[in-house]
Design goal:
- With 313 residues, the chain is of the alpha+beta class.
- It has two domains: 189 residues, Sandwich (Jelly Rolls); 89 residues.
- Helix content is 31%, strand content 24%.
- The strands form three sheets. Strands 1, 3, 4, 5, 6, 8, 11, 13 and 14 form a nine-stranded antiparallel sheet that branches.
- Helix 6 runs antiparallel to helix 7, helix 6 packs antiparallel against helix 9 and helix 7 packs antiparallel against helix 8.
- The chain is globular, with a radius of gyration of 21 Å.
Length: 313
């Protein structure tokens, strides 16, 4: 998700030692390799489709994994975000390891912000986003612009563990973001609210995603995504860029007509797919070379967000 600045600190603070103790009690056996098998990267799923820690998909109702249900303070921390929560994991980075530079351009992250709560970290851990580097301290709460290129370095010898949650937010969450602190500013009187472990028994309720990928993308969402990508073209005034804009407008108009007739009923999927193919055929041959301002390429971004998710899978 695009943000006005690379990093924003949210006005929440947690007891990192309590979080670390809960995680340590889970043992080493619950940790899994990173899906891409990045060296030194491992994860522990907390919210997943159907509560199944082995399910790495994004389609379906998110629910707590058995490991999360054994960690009451972790549940309390997630509840304090005041958000509808999507896929959530603990992400571990070994000493002298890194997360390679990348941009989150898949459909799932287009309208979701990523919340980070450092549980274990050191001064030698640097989070870089949009050319800005910070060290997120233990117990703090941060979001960052996933549309800018970002990476993480752990130059220390000890491992780094972050709670990482993807969310579309909600009214309470975005109100809290408005009270957040940009990484390069120190507003007078700004302070974070301490969220201490609750003494009462029982777990707070979490609001989890039930609907996360459309059966058929609405024409308004389709137009929103295409406009965002097209406006990010590095060279927007070239003939090829103008052809991209015209092809996008044709697709949006065709989609509105199909939507008015079929909606997301599940009917007309062949016609929707034909409209997407006509859009692809309408693009200039040089489309694969069109860059976006964040350094990524236009076609893979549109493919992952619109072409792959325009018609349900």
């Amino acid at each position: 998700m695009r943000l006005p600045v690379p990093f924003i600190q949210l006005p929440l603070r947690f007891d990192a030692n309590v979080l670390a103790s809960e995680i340590e009690r889970l043992g080493e056996g619950v940790w899994r390799d990173h899906p891409q098998k990045f060296a030194g990267n491992s994860m522990l799923p907390l919210l997943a489709v159907g509560g199944d820690a082995s399910n790495e998909t994004f389609v379906g109702e998110m629910a707590p994994t058995p490991e999360l249900l054994r960690c009451p303070y972790l549940v309390q921390v997630l509840a304090s975000f005041g958000a509808v929560l999507g896929r959530t994991r603990l992400m571990r980075l070994a000493g002298q390891a890194e997360v390679s530079p990348h941009v989150d351009s898949d459909y799932y992250w287009a309208e979701r912000v990523r919340v980070h709560v450092p549980v274990r970290t050191q001064a030698g851990v640097r989070f870089v986003c949009g050319g800005q580097a910070i060290n997120m301290a233990e117990g703090e709460c941060w979001i960052f612009d996933t549309w800018r290129e970002h990476q993480v370095f752990n130059d220390a010898t000890e491992q780094r563990i972050h709670l990482v949650s993807d969310t579309v937010g909600g009214a309470e969450f975005w109100s809290m973001v408005e009270r957040g602190r940009p990484h390069d500013a120190s507003p007078q009187g700004w302070q974070a609210r301490n969220v201490a472990p609750a003494s009462s028994a029982g777990l707070p309720a979490l609001r989890c995603e039930r609907h996360n990928v459309p059966r058929i993308m609405s024409p308004w969402e389709l137009q929103h995504h295409l406009h965002g990508f097209n406006a990010d073209l590095v060279a927007p005034q070239t003939p090829d860029a103008r052809q991209i804009w015209m092809a996008s407008n044709r697709l949006t108009r065709a989609w509105r007509g199909l939507w008015a007739h079929f909606g997301d009923s599940g009917e007309g999927s062949g016609e929707y797919r034909a409209a997407l193919q006509a859009f692809i055929d309408d693009l200039p041959e040089t489309v694969v070379n069109q860059r976006l301002r964040n350094g990524s390429f236009w076609y893979p971004a549109v493919s992952a967000t619109v072409l792959k998710r325009g018609v349900g899978n």
